[in-house]
Amino acid sequence: MKQKIYSLFFATLVLTACSDKEPISAVDYKVNDQNSAVEWKGSAPTHYHEGAFKVSGNLQTDRKGKITGGDFTIPIASISNFDLSNEAEREALLNHLKSPDFFNLAVHPNASFHITKVEPYSQTGSAANVMITGDFTMIGQTHSIEIPAVIKTEKEKIAAEGSFKLKRLQWGMNSYNDPEQQLYILPEVDIKLKLHFNKSTS
User: pLDDT per residue over 65-123, tens digit each?
Assistant: First the structure.
């Protein structure tokens, strides 16, 4: 009789341990790089240019669908331009943006973002439902940023859209920062995230 009681007690402990571990198991999602982008818009007092970067990376959620982490890579070489129709002008702009005046592609080929915190978010006039905080690395410097975002989950897919202003001077992108010079570029760059994720099958 005692042996049966001990066996039952042991089995209960094993089942409890398994149940305790199950909820913390992460679910991985991978960026669908074919329909995801990081869009940018840089402005001067009299004109602007806009375009996009490609992005790759992974997102983690718990079993309830709450985002718990994520890491992303933005290859600087993937930068594109939307507003210039003249191919020579477009190539000249993109080559300049890849130069040491801006992203310094030869030394810093990638930018990256590491999620450190995700919290519910609600603010009048904003459609965002979460605030994503993370470490953004660009041109060899890392600083924390906050991104209000709209997260939508459907079956085995997640869509995320967000926008924020990137203060380029904070990362040492100091070129064309004098309002008295012929070319003056505003210190804030508008960034829009349009990301789509598929549940990882691996």
Answer: 899 999 999 999 999 999 999 999 999 999 999 999 999 999 999 999 999 999 999 98
Per DSSP, 173 falls in state -
Q: Please name the residue that has the structure tokens 């100091």.
A: 174
Give Rg (Cα) of the chain: 23
What is the reported pTM? Answer: 0.85
Q: Which amino acid is at 21?
A: K
Polymer length in residues for the chain: 202
Contact 124, 141 (CB under 8 A): no
Write out pLDDT tens, residues 185-202.
999 999 999 999 999 976
- Dihedral sign of CA atoms 165, 32, 92, 81 in order: negative
Give residues with Cβ within 8 angstroms of 47, minimum separation 6: none
Q: Which residues does 193 contact at the CB level (< 8 Å), separation at least 6? A: 38, 39, 147, 149, 160, 161, 162, 163
